[in-house]
Amino acid sequence: MTQPAIRADSTGDTARAANKRWHYIPEVPLRVSPLFRIPLQSAAIGKWIVGGWFPPTERLIILLLAAVSWFFFHPALMR
């Protein structure tokens, strides 16, 4: 299997041409979760939690298993 040849861009810079192909540069500033933004915004926090935890994913399955095991297998707190 052969690697495609790296061609120079319009300025003749081969490194820049290679970087455009594979080097990911995110937009800055990076966005963080609303839990770490000041002032706290309850609507944004709620939307973030619902969007990150409640779609049928591995996180939701683990959360449901933890709740079911706590409810059925742990002794009552009154004892």
Explain what the structure shows.
By secondary structure, the chain is mostly helical. It has one domain (14-73). 47% of the residues lie in helices and 0% in strands. It is built from 3 helices and no strands. It has helices at 14-22, 42-53, 58-73. The longest helix is centred in the C-terminal third of the chain and has 16 residues, at 58-73. The chain is elongated, with a radius of gyration of 24 Å. The model has no long low-confidence stretch (mean pLDDT 77).
Quick gist of this model?
With 79 residues, the chain is mainly α.
Number of domains: 1
Number of helices: 3
Distance between the termini: 69 Å
Structural class: mainly alpha
Radius of gyration: 24 Å
Largest sheet: none
Stretches where pLDDT falls below 50 for ≥5 residues? none
What is the helix content?
A: 40-55%
Strand count: 0
Approximately how much beta-strand content do the residues carry?
Answer: under 5%
The SSE string, one letter per element, is HHH
Key traits:
mainly alpha, 3 helices, 79 residues, single chain, elongated
Present the secondary structure layout.
Elements: H1 14-22, H2 42-53, H3 58-73
